[in-house]
């Protein structure tokens, strides 16, 4: 029923706020074992059509929609996760016995499901690269369905007082999130309500929560906003009540992330709400002008350094990323085709991968899978483990790495000219357009020098 929505995570002295939410990993080890596939004579086939999946975590239901495409003998050939306007194609599907494993794109995770009666599924969402064993119960039913349903149906279902707060145009909110330790950080909320669908975006200084979709339902005392998303790496649920019952000029609610992440949030309608400058959150240490690193390439035996002859006299973009990071996936989906169109201008990109494993070979495999699935033509290196502190230590010329992704611009002399924290992905609408425009402007300026 709902459409799209995104969010970008804030720092502003708040420290690490809900690391499981944005691309701010501090994981240092991997789950070593994966669920064994069952064997048997009867294969499980997923009938074609639209399904409503539900993740059960923290006493909450995190719903999402997905479409199944079948081929010969009605076997599933692709699953498309639907997050508002986004369609994430999943085509690594394997059925053994009564169990079907759907690998979740570039992420080291899967939905492992079985039939549970006609047009129903049950199983688990499994993250293989989590620090601790990570399984979340999953159910699904087939058929066109709303993402959310009214919790309190008093006979006036569907009536909602539309006013200037939520309408077909995007409303901007000043947002404050507060974690379990009482630490708060700012954000900007963007919401649009149209044809019964709620969409929008949360922005923070270190990333966005990508596409969220939802709707307006009845809560215990009035109307309630609900938004959710599932991209394979993250399962999010946002709820908020209409504090004044005036069409959501003020919001108060909860944010649930996967198995255990929980924060509260408040928001006030504010068309002038904005975040600190993403180019001013970190910088080079005093006296430092160049990056000095040499990391192993994802290809065995190779290495990558900004002082390599390949980069001499060129503008170089250094991308700090992880294959586990949805915001990094969004940035890579922009950078990969951009590079193919612009590399002849004298521009190179180096991707520094920080993975959720200390094993260099395993990390290389994860990055190579991302490289293949996202058609990445620029160089990728294994830089270390997925930890902001570790990333900062591996790049000692920088004051601090605050987020995955972080983008560093080097001029033709190899000197750092800009460090951009985070990335506003396509789910953020005009903010994504501004991100792309600023990127191109920076490159044009450096090439003209």
TrEMBL record:
Keywords, A to Z? Signal
Residue ranges of every copy of the Thioredoxin domain listed in the record: 284-448
Q: Does the keyword Signal apply?
A: yes
Work out whether the entry's keyword set contains Magnesium.
no
Query: InterPro entries given for it?
Result: Redoxin (IPR013740), Thioredoxin-like_sf (IPR036249), Thioredoxin_domain (IPR013766), Thioredoxin_ResA/DsbE_sf (IPR050553)
Signal peptide start-end: 1-19
Q: Which domain of life is it from?
A: Bacteria
- List the SUPFAM superfamilies: Thioredoxin-like (SSF52833)
Entries under PROSITE patterns matching the protein: THIOREDOXIN_2
Q: Which Pfam families match?
A: Redoxin
PANTHER family from the UniProt entry: PROTEIN DIPZ, THIOL:DISULFIDE INTERCHANGE PROTEIN DSBE
The name this protein goes by in its record: TlpA family protein disulfide reductase
Q: Which organism is it from?
A: Hymenobacter sublimis
């Amino acid at each position: 029923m709902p459409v799209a929505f995104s969010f970008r995570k804030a720092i502003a002295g708040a420290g690490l706020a809900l690391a499981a939410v944005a691309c701010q990993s501090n994981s240092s080890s991997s789950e070593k074992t994966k669920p064994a596939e069952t064997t048997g004579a009867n294969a499980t086939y997923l009938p074609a059509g639209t399904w409503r999946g539900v993740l059960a975590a923290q006493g909450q239901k995190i719903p999402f929609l997905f479409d199944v495409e079948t081929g010969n003998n009605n076997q599933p050939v692709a699953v498309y996760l639907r997050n508002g306007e986004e369609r994430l194609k999943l085509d690594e599907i394997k059925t053994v016995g009564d169990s079907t494993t759907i690998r979740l794109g570039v992420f080291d995770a899967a939905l492992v499901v079985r039939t549970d009666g006609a047009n129903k599924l049950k199983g688990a969402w499994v993250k293989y690269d989590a620090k601790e064993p990570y399984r979340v119960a999953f159910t699904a039913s087939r058929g066109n369905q709303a993402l959310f349903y009214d919790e309190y149906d008093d006979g006036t279902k569907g009536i909602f007082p539309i006013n200037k707060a939520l309408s077909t145009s995007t409303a901007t909110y000043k947002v404050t999130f507060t974690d379990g330790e009482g630490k708060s950080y700012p954000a900007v909320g963007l919401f649009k309500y149209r044809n019964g669908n709620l969409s929008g975006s949360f922005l923070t200084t270190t990333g966005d929560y990508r596409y969220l979709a939802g709707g307006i339902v009845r809560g215990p005392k009035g109307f309630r906003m609900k938004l959710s998303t599932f991209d394979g790496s993250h399962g999010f649920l946002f709820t908020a009540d209409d504090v004044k019952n005036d069409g959501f000029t003020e919001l108060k609610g909860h944010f649930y992330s996967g198995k255990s992440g929980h924060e509260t949030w408040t928001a006030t309608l504010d068309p002038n709400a904005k975040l600190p400058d993403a180019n001013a959150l970190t910088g080079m240490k005093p006296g430092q002008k160049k990056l000095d690193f040499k990391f192993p390439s994802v290809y065995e035996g190779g290495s990558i350094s900004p002082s390599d002859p390949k980069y001499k006299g060129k503008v170089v973009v250094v991308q700090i990323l992880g294959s586990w990071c949805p915001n990094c996936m969004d940035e890579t989906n922009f950078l990969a085709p951009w590079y193919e169109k612009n590399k002849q201008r004298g521009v190179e990109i180096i991707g520094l991968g920080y993975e959720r494993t200390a094993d260099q070979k395993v990390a290389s495999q994860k990055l190579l899978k991302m490289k293949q699935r996202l058609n990445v033509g620029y160089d990728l290196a294994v830089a270390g483990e997925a930890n902001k502190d570790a990333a900062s230590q591996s790049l000692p010329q920088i004051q601090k790495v605050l987020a995955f992704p972080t983008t560093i611009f080097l001029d033709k002399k190899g000197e750092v000219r800009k460090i951009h924290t985070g990335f506003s992905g396509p789910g953020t609408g005009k903010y994504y357009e501004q991100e792309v425009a600023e990127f191109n402007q920076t490159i044009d300026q450096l090439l003209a020098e």
